[in-house]
């Protein structure tokens, strides 16, 4: 007898579900294998088939900030406007006011885009039309480059699927021309072209990254295909020694003084005596790094570093310091000097004003700024000794700042000195120095004879927090503290007994100054230009405990052609520095030293 076994509907359902479950599990396993386990292999296969594209991930160029962290230069994102001509030519369908679909033509859309980018509508329209005419399957064209974030947002709100906006790095200088002569600028491609942007490019430069991805035929990025092949790295933050507000003030002040005196150009420099840190170096004319091409090329840098000039009588303080420190004479030594004399080897030296034979002290020579007097003191110092000291003071070589294009000045070796040069160099002729070099000399005197390397940079902070390029605090002793003190007191007496005493006085503070009127050389002839001078007033305060050195320089002033032209700006500049840093007034008055023996 045969028994027939039949399955119930319930059993058949369970069996069917089991089969479905097995198939489903097989599909899931295969998907995991394709999309997870072997995803990289499949992406590589597709990339090898030429289906990939890539885009740049831009790193941001590092910011430049002042000593307080105030931003002087920063990076912003700008955008290019790219279009897919094949899709754009078809127009776009949107819903009208009555919810019915409406097709907008490319000509209508081009007018909308042009209203945002500021272009002519016909120009925008022609981008797509010309691309399609050249290749009906064209998928790429550029409508505009370097548009702002606001323009990018306005275009993105149009919701046009055929527009893309790859970012690019831009550079912004919030304060315009403030410190523009120092900051420098970058080109439209983001490359550093001048100033600290160039000098410290290793700190500021970013490194762009790359993302590789797959695209469909319609240009849409396929999900899950984006692969970062290289990460973007932002540049470091460059912290300067500059005080932004002080720099701004000095920029306004020197602009006013240049215009008031009819000068070609001018500069004001502020340096911290004990550290050598430059707190301000303002020039006029200067450059706005946001638009450097608006400024003539010769005015886009910092001529304070690049263009040396004869320092004139400011150099007499250096001769005095060398003679005292080397033991060639003492502060009690006197010389007899008339206003015009013929010295050794037939060298002829004259003072700026007529006078009879005076028995000058060293202080008196500085007060009256006697060329003949300092020449006679200079006779007591061997030429090689003077030269060696000048080198120790930093002359003849660029400063530690190493600004792009910085000059080392002109300091001929002793073997090339004739008798006239021997004397001329005692009062600042026959050689040339940059403004920072001269400020470095006075910093050494103000700092008790210890020369600190000048610095514009506090340090570079990398994206990972690492700090580099911090200036060294070590200085070099050039002259003794006693020599520096004696010369400082002599310069105080220039401020109190000199012809400009009333113009440079700052109530409550002891001030030390020296002036200089250097002759200008005609680059075409090599001879001195008639009636053209480079004038300087340099000094420090409080002279009993020097904190800051200030130098005011004018190139070819016309209303007043001597260093008296610098006095008003010098007094205002030094007063502002003392206020800005809340320097305590002097607790004593300047000891009066005799002019004549």
UniProtKB/TrEMBL annotation:
**Family affiliation:** Belongs to the transpeptidase family.
- Membrane-spanning regions, if any? 12-32
The name this protein goes by in its record: Penicillin-binding protein 2
Q: Where is this region: Disordered?
A: 285-309
**Principal location class:** membrane
Under the heading InterPro entries, the entry gives:
Beta-lactam/transpept, Beta-lactam/transpept-like, PBP_dimer, PBP_dimer_sf, PCN-bd_Tpept
Query: From which domain of life does this come?
Result: Bacteria
Q: Which Pfam families match?
A: PBP_dimer (PF03717), Transpeptidase (PF00905)
UniProt domain Penicillin-binding protein transpeptidase: residue ranges: 266-574
Alphabetic keyword roster: Membrane, Transmembrane, Transmembrane helix
Q: Where in the cell is it found?
A: Membrane
Q: Does the keyword Transport apply?
A: no
Q: Where is the Penicillin-binding protein dimerisation domain?
A: 58-189
């Amino acid at each position: 007898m045969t028994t027939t076994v039949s399955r119930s509907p319930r059993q058949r359902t369970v069996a069917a579900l089991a089969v479905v479950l097995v198939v489903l599990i097989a599909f899931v396993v295969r998907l995991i294998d394709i999309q997870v386990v072997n995803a990289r292999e499949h992406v590589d296969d597709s990339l090898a088939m030429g289906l990939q594209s890539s885009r740049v991930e831009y790193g941001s160029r590092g910011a430049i900030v002042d000593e307080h962290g105030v931003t002087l230069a920063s990076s912003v994102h700008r955008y290019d406007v790219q279009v897919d001509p094949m899709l754009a030519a078809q127009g776009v369908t949107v819903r009208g006011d009555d919810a019915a679909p409406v097709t907008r033509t490319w000509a209508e859309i081009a007018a909308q885009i042009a209203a945002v980018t500021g272009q002519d509508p016909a120009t925008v329209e022609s981008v797509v039309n010309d691309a399609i005419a050249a290749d009906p399957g064209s998928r790429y064209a550029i409508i505009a480059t370097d548009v702002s974030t606001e323009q990018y947002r306005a275009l993105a709100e149009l919701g046009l699927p055929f527009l893309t906006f790859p970012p690019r790095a831009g550079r912004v200088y919030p304060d315009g021309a403030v410190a523009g002569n120092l900051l420098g600028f970058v080109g439209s491609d983001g490359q550093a072209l001048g100033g600290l942007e160039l000098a410290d490019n290793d700190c500021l430069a970013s490194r762009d990254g790359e993302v590789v991805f797959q695209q469909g035929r319609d240009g849409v990025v396929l999900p899950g295909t984006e692969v970062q092949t290289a990460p973007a790295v932002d540049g470091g933050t460059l912290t300067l020694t500059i005080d932004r507000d002080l720099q701004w003030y000095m920029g306004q002040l020197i602009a006013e003084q240049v215009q008031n005196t009819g000068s070609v150009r001018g500069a004001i420099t502020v340096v911290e005596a004990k550290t050598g840190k430059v707190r301000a170096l303002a020039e006029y004319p200067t450059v706005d790094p946001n638009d450097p091409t608006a400024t003539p090329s010769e005015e886009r840098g910092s001529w304070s570093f690049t263009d040396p000039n004869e320092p004139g009588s400011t150099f007499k303080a250096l001769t005095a310091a060398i003679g005292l420190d080397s033991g060639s004479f003492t502060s009690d030594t006197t010389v007899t000097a008339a206003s015009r004399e013929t010295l050794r080897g037939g060298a002829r030296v004259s003072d700026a004003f007529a006078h009879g034979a005076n028995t000058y002290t060293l202080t008196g020579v500085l007060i009256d700024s006697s060329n003949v007097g300092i020449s006679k003191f200079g006779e007591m110092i061997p030429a090689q000794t003077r030269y060696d000291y000048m080198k120790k003071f930093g002359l003849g070589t660029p400063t530690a700042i190493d600004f792009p294009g910085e000059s080392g000045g002109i300091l001929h070796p002793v073997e090339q000195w004739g008798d006239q040069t021997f004397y001329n160099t005692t009062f600042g002729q026959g050689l040339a120095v940059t403004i920072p070099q001269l400020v470095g000399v006075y910093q050494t005197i103000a700092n008790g004879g210890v020369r600190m390397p000048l610095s514009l940079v506090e340090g570079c902070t990398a994206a990972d927090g690492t700090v580099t390029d911090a200036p060294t605090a070590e200085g070099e002793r050039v002259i003794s503290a006693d020599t520096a003190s004696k010369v400082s007191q002599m310069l105080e007496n220039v401020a109190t007994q000199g012809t400009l005493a009333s113009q440079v006085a700052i109530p409550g503070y002891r001030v030390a100054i020296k002036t200089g009127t250097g002759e200008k050389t005609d680059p075409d002839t090599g001879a001195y230009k008639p009636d053209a001078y480079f004038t300087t007033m340099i000094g420090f305060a409080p002279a009993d405990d020097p904190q800051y050195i200030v130098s005011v320089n004018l190139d070819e002033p016309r209303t007043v052609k001597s260093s008296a032209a610098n006095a008003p700006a010098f007094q205002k500049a030094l007063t502002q520095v003392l206020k800005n840093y809340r320097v305590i007034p002097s607790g004593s008055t300047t000891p009066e030293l005799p002019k004549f023996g």
